[in-house]
Amino acid sequence: MTDSAFKTGPLGDLRVLEMGTLLAGPFCGQLLGDMGAEVIKIEPPNQGDPMRVWGRQKQGDPSLWWPVVARNKKAVTLDLRQAEGQEVLRELVTKADFLLENFRPGTLEKWGLGWRELSAINPRLIMIRVSGFGQTGPYSSQAGFGAIGEAMGGLRYVVGDPSTPPSRMGISIGDSLAATFACVGALSALHYREKTGRGQVVDSAIYEAVLNMMESLITEYDKTGYIRERTGAILPNVAPSNVYPTSDGLVLIAANQDTVFGRLCEAMGRPELAKDPRYSSHQARGARQRELDDLVGDWTRALPTRRVLDLMSEYGVPAGLIYRAPEMLDDPHFAAREAIVTVDHPQFGRLRMQNVAPKLSETPGGIRSASPDLGQHNDDVYLGLMGMAPERYEQLKQRKVI
């Protein structure tokens, strides 16, 4: 493989057919596209992905979420409910490395587009399937949005303040986690294919992706009967690590490791605390978490935020502010690492969004194109990539198959 094959990123020689809607599948497509893969997004004619209108925007304007999740993608229309559309999909599969979908399990099988049929057409195909509950099991056929997976996977119960009912994260974390695990699975399957020539199914369930982020929650209950509860801004028995008041705002300090706690005590002018048996070990500090947080808070409250941050930097104690979008856009570290970039967009002009992560030294990914219009690449894909006869192409358009 020549270096030129990877000029758009490490996956520049791979092609993804992205089907499905909203976020759980399309975010996986975004990740693969960010790393250079050619992602062909397949949408129903005259309808498209609901993400085209989701998110905050002015009345009548395009979605401001869509340009992020649909970046680096080509868009074609295809009605998979029609037999002719299913046949076109089978033809496209012969030219694909991955097929990515997040329909309810059984939907593709109903259309004759399941793994058995598609792998017979292309044995090297890797089929990435993202769903609420997975492709098997008693719940597999149920509708499973991210919110349900977050609750079932254990996240919702532990998020929020103990005085309130379970909260949700301010983002669609369940969908994004399932998509991220799907991407990991896809690249693992790709490695196996390189060794054997055979594709396989990647089955990523939202509730299992969330469950895998729950640390020792299951093991703690299994061995001790302990059930994690909502704890607000802290992690139980991890101290000091909290949001503390200053004379003009708030600051987050994480000094729960023994050596780091010692440096915090030096910064506070209280070096004796690090040797005090009440605070000298991780377990001791955890047992007196509220007491220790009050002690640190009394110190920070007397100082302005900038002074606290300067002292934490001087003594090597992790600390920072709680950022919103304005703070991110003004931060020199974000700018130096190009964590946020400006992309040219046909509707919005210059549009700022998060950059590709992680950064690769030899074959970095990047944002090559803004989100496409519905069916923007029909000619390129059907006439160009597939070599479809113009007469057939026009007939399919007239029948609203594409």
Write the layout of secondary structure elements.
Elements: E1 15-18, H1 26-34, E2 38-43, H2 66-69, E3 73-77, H3 83-93, E4 98-101, H4 107-110, H5 115-121, E5 126-131, H6 146-152, H7 155-158, H8 173-196, E6 201-205, H9 206-211, H10 217-224, E7 241-245, E8 250-254, H11 258-268, H12 282-287, H13 289-300, H14 305-314, E9 319-320, H15 325-330, H16 332-336, E10 340-345, E11 349-354, H17 378-385, H18 390-398
Parallel strand pairs: 1-2, 1-4, 2-3, 4-5, 5-6
Antiparallel strand pairs: 7-8, 8-9, 10-11
Helix pairs in contact: 1-8
Give a summary of the structure in a few sentences.
This protein has 402 residues and is an alpha/beta fold. 38% of the residues lie in helices and 13% in strands.
